């Protein structure tokens, strides 16, 4: 079992199986490019991921290590937000800040499965809500004037459900 050392942006060190981290295209390419193996003593520094988030990413990758790779961009696949596993649903019961940091880390590390499930979670937080409810959910200040709001409403009338 080949291990690699990762260092978060806040200096915490993680020893992780290479196989687990191969879900990250970024890390997989880095391992191949640099010829990283368990003989290397220098950690791979991840300047964009802090320890708390890296720990969550490793936990997710460990659980999903035997999953088949997600399809590239399957045009025929319906974009569904209701196909999140119960494990992922529980795993992603975190505060919004953590959820958004996980999205950023999944994007940076190029972990498609984690990026998909975190984005679907955010989509589910929005689904079926009014503009005001979305603003409240994400603590977004309304900076439109009443006239601007009316203009946006008129421009988007076509997308209201009938």
TrEMBL record:
Start and end residues of each SKP1 component dimerisation domain: 112-159
Entry-linked SUPFAM superfamilies: POZ domain, Skp1 dimerisation domain-like
Top-level taxon of the source organism: Eukaryota
UniProt keyword terms in alphabetical order: Ubl conjugation pathway
GO terms for biological process, alphabetical: protein ubiquitination; ubiquitin-dependent protein catabolic process
Keyword Endoplasmic reticulum tagged: no
UniProt keyword Signal, yes or no: no
UniProt family annotation: Belongs to the SKP1 family.
Name recorded for this polypeptide: S-phase kinase-associated protein 1
Organism of this sequence: Bugula neritina (Brown bryozoan)
């Amino acid at each position: 079992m080949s291990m690699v050392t990762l260092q978060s942006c806040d200096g915490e060190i993680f020893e992780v199986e290479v196989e687990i981290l191969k879900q990250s295209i970024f890390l997989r390419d880095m391992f191949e490019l640099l010829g990283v193996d368990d003989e290397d003593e220098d950690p791979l520094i991840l300047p964009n991921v802090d320890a708390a988030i890296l720990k969550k990413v490793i936990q997710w990758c460990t659980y999903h290590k035997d999953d088949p790779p997600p399809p590239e961009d399957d045009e025929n696949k319906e974009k569904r937000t209701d196909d999140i596993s119960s494990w992922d649903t529980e795993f992603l019961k975190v505060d919004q800040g953590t959820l958004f940091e996980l999205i950023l880390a999944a994007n940076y590390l190029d972990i498609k499965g984690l990026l998909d499930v975190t984005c679907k979670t955010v989509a589910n937080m929005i689904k079926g809500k009014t503009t005001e409810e979305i603003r409240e959910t994400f603590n977004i200040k309304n900076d439109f004037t009443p006239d601007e709001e009316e203009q946006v409403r008129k421009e988007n009338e076509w997308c209201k459900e009938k």
